[in-house]
Write a structure and sequence with these properties.
Helices cover about 70% and strands about 5% of the residues. It has 4 domains: about 110 residues, no CATH class; about 170 residues, no CATH class; about 180 residues, no CATH class; about 180 residues, Tetracycline Repressor, domain 2 (Orthogonal Bundle). It has a two-stranded antiparallel ribbon with strand order 1-2. The protein is mainly alpha-helical and about 850 residues long. A hairpin with a 3-residue loop joins strand 1 and strand 2. One of its GO terms (cellular component) is RZZ complex.
Length: about 850
């Protein structure tokens, strides 16, 4: 064996030092004690049957440690005596043999331990694997046993569930369902078919829950029966009914109580509360107990003589007392409620049931009862307080029974929805209902298909005031003069002439002369006759409603008064929205209705401004002031309701005084609406007249008889149409407005006639005569206007003078035309228009040329 290359195989110093240090500690220790400990440990390992994997691996690790220790010891000795070892190894044959034998022995031991076929270590690993497999089989068998025990327990639960249901022990059955639910949450099943088995068990549990749910539902249905009085339904056998407490406990066990309480809530609402609200005038609720077994809640017709402060809330209280005591197991109703404490389950069920029903109940009571009981007259507000007190008492009782939760300070929004909050705001609801009633009445008036009319007589305010002032001044002067003359007469002392004069020239004589003088003044300074026109009774009714609402508003506080005032604005907004849309076809097709609508709008605007002036002039409106509103209506029955005016005037200072009334914008909007429909009707009539004129096809070829007849027929039709329209409008519009409307229509006709004549470039003498006749037919329209005064035809028909001169020009000679031109009578024509007419009427001559030149220089100043 060659020498061992000690230097080449030397371990790192740090590793050698560590090994030597550990080995030194072992040497210093008691060797006998170590050997004894090793032997004890090995015996322990050998006696363990079977050895676990951890112990075996620990043993192998100890063997490896011993080998390492031996190697370390050898290396240490060699390292510490390298020189001596090298010399001895070279010179001593015996040492070399011993070392070679040691290495050979080491190799043999290593083979015995690590040989892959016969070595101890592979066999040991194989034994460990077999041991592991055996252990795994044991564990699997244990899991199978645990699973079988689990399935056996599940099977037992199913069996007990069926037995409990058959014995009507529903609480125990519900407990079994809850127990099985818990078992499925900790399932020990670990087989390959675990998912399949678990799904099957879940299906079985669901089936058990459905069966229990159906059973509980049937029991609850038999225990709580809703039926019509006198119906064919049987009340059921009381002996077969399960106690309600057991039913609700079972429902709680399987988490089905919420669903059943929700169903109970629907039945209570549909069978009890809603019918009671619907028949609140004649129905009530009462509790009846039969044989201390069956408790009945009867909702039906009242017995004669039964009455309470508020029968509806008393009946609702009876309904919920019945539910609390007889369904949820509350205290015995025959005892004082204050002396008994309900069970926790009763409180729990009542609270949950309240969560389902309280909101719907509250909204239904408000919608179907309280909202209808809100007064629509101020005189009814006091009587509503009794209803408000009943509502508050009912709500307090519902909270005591846990059917309505106590609201926290942070739940302000929910607090606004309570019955107490609703009745506390009766002033707001009163004004809202009053507004709704106002708009309902207004809508009915507006949508009425009938258009009955009434005559309005109005005097232009400024003219009337000026006339009255003149009469007053002249009367004062005359009375002063007569008084002075009377004094002078009495001061004359003529005894010879005294006798007999007193009879004819006494005080009666001077009084008579004064009356005659004043009468003469009034006859000389006459107040103009009022202008009359028609409005519909719709407008009058709307103003009446407005005055009534404002009078009602003055009996309320400021905020409520303003809300009612705003309701009047809504009324006229509704008017502006409905009338022109709903009656559009009538206003378009019937001129009288369109013009009457214009009158309605302007009259409403005027009356609203009168109301505004009256309310804003002072804090208190007198009866006379209110009665003055709407003056000028010429039919009986018109005026404003002054009832309770004294109460209004004596109201406290915190009441609404009406100073906020402002109708300026609304008046302007109404005037604009009326003017728009006035213009629409004028344009409609203009379009009709234009269609007539278009039938003529112009004014050419008047020498032809057929053309002349066609134009003659159209002119007659136009005159007839305007005459008939004047008759229609005469009863509707005031004279000034009627003349204005006719003037616009006539002007549209003659303007087109002027254009048609001016379009002619060659007019023969015969055609000129025929044109004169055709154009002259429109002069009949002068009869539609006064001959004198501010409403003459030329005051309303812009082009009337021009048209009249045009008709004359058709028959005048050139010299006569030029005379009128030089006298500035033809200023209505442009110089080009006049020149074209002369060119069309007269042949081209030097005289015509000179005259045209003169015309082109412009009209004379």
């Amino acid at each position: 064996m060659p020498p061992i290359p000690i230097l080449a195989t030397a371990l790192p110093d740090a590793f050698i030092s560590s090994v030597i240090e550990d080995q030194q500690q072992l040497i210093e220790a008691d060797v006998d004690w170590v050997d004894e400990e090793e032997r004890s440990y090995k015996n322990t390992l050998l006696s363990s049957a079977p050895a676990d994997r951890t112990s075996v691996m620990s043993c192998l690790q100890r063997i490896d440690s011993k080998i390492l220790a031996f190697k370390t010891e050898v290396l240490e000795k060699i390292n510490s005596n390298q020189g001596s070892f090298s010399v001895l190894y070279k010179n001593s044959h015996e040492l070399r043999e011993r070392i070679n034998n040691l290495f050979t022995e080491f190799e043999n031991v290593s083979k015995e331990v690590n040989d892959p076929e016969k070595g101890v270590k592979p066999k040991l690993f194989l034994s460990l694997q077999e041991n592991h497999d055996v252990k795994q089989d044991v564990q699997n068998n244990g899991a199978v046993m645990e699973m079988l025990n689990y399935l056996s327990e599940v099977q037992l639960c199913v069996k007990r569930f069926d037995e409990y249901l058959n014995d009507a022990r529903i609480e125990e059955a519900a407990g079994i369902v809850r127990e099985m639910d818990s078992l499925l949450e900790i399932s020990p099943i670990i087989t390959d078919r675990r998912i399949y088995i678990i799904e099957k068990l879940k299906l079985k549990l669901a089936s058990m829950k459905n069966i229990l749910d159906q059973t509980l539902d049937d029991l609850l249905t038999r225990a709580i029966i809703f039926e019509r009085i006198g119906g064919d339904n049987e009340s059921g056998d009381p002996d077969s009914a399960t106690h309600l407490s057991s039913i609700f406990v079972s429902l709680t066990e399987v988490n089905l109580v919420d669903m059943q309480l929700s169903r109970l809530k629907k039945n209570v609402m549909n069978y009890l509360v809603i019918p009671l609200l619907k028949h609140r005038q004649s129905w009530h609720a009462s509790i009846k107990i039969e044989d201390d077994i069956i408790s009945k809640l009867i909702v039906g017709s009242k017995n004669n003589g039964e009455e309470s402060v508020d029968p509806l809330f008393a009946s609702l209280t009876s309904i919920f007392h019945f539910i609390y005591n007889f369904i949820f197991g509350g205290p015995n109703p025959s005892l004082s409620y204050d002396s008994l404490n309900p069970s926790p389950l009763t409180v729990q069920y009542a609270s949950k049931f309240g969560n389902f029903i309280s909101r719907d109940l509250r909204e239904l009571v408000i919608k179907e009862y309280l909202s209808h009981m809100i007064p629509i007259e101020t005189s009814e507000l006091i009587s509503f307080e009794k209803i408000a007190q009943s509502a508050r008492r009912f709500e307090a009782e519902m909270r005591r029974l846990e059917f309505m939760p106590e609201l926290q300070s942070s739940e302000e929004e929910e607090e606004e929805r309570t019955l107490g909050a609703y009745v506390a705001k009766v002033d707001i609801h009163f004004t809202i209902r009053k507004r709704d009633r106002l708009l309902e009445l207004g809508r009915k008036i507006m949508m009425d298909e009938k258009f009955e009319s009434v005559v309005i007589a109005e005097v232009v305010e400024q003219v009337r005031e000026n006339a009255e002032l003149r009469i007053q001044e002249e009367t004062k002067i005359t009375e002063a003069t007569l008084t002075e003359k009377e004094k002078e007469h009495k001061s004359e002392n003529n005894e010879g002439w005294d006798f007999g004069w007193e009879e004819d020239w006494g005080e009666d004589h001077w009084t008579s002369r004064s009356k005659e003088a004043i009468q003469n003044i009034k006859s000389e300074i006459s107040i103009p006759e009022p202008e009359r026109y028609e409005i519909t009774t719709k407008s009058k009714a709307l103003i009446d409603l407005t005055i009534d609402i404002l009078n009602e508003a003055r009996k309320l506080n400021v905020q409520s008064g303003i809300r009612l005032y705003n309701a009047t604005l809504d009324l006229f907004d509704l008017y502006r929205a409905i009338m022109p849309v709903y009656h559009s076809s009538k206003f378009t097709d019937i001129p009288a209705l369109a013009m009457m609508f214009y009158n309605d709008c302007t009259w409403l605007a005027s009356e609203l401004l009168k109301i505004q002036r009256q309310y804003s002039s002072s804090q208190s409106i007198s009866s006379n002031a209110i009665m003055n509103l709407g003056n000028g209506i010429e039919e009986d029955g018109w005026g404003f309701d002054t009832e309770n005016i004294d109460e209004v005037n004596s109201a406290t200072t915190d009441q609404w005084t009406g100073q906020n009334v402002y109708y300026e914008d609304m008046a302007n909007q109404l005037r604009e609406l009326g003017q728009r429909w006035f213009d629409i009707q004028i344009e409609t009539q203009k379009s009709l007249l234009k269609d007539f004129l278009d039938e003529m096809g112009g004014l050419h070829s008047m020498a032809r008889e057929d053309r002349f007849d066609a134009c003659h027929r159209v002119m007659k039709q136009i005159v007839h149409t305007l005459t008939q329209l004047n008759k229609v409008l005469k009863a509707v519009l005031s004279p000034a407005l009627r003349y204005k409307a006719l003037g616009l229509l006539v002007d549209s006709v003659i303007k087109q006639m002027i254009d048609d004549v001016e379009d002619l470039y060659d007019i023969s003498a015969e055609e000129s005569q025929q044109l004169n006749l055709i154009c002259g037919m429109l002069f009949e329209l002068e009869g539609l206007f006064p001959k004198i005064g501010q409403h003459k035809i030329n005051m309303h028909v812009k082009n009337w003078e021009k048209y009249r001169h045009l008709t004359d020009i058709l028959n005048l000679s050139l010299a006569e035309i030029m005379n009128r031109f030089r006298n500035a009578e033809l200023t209505g024509f442009k110089t080009t228009e006049l020149g074209n007419l002369i060119c069309a009427l007269f042949a081209d001559t030097p005289l015509r040329a000179r005259n045209l030149q003169e015309i082109q220089e412009g009209h004379p100043l």
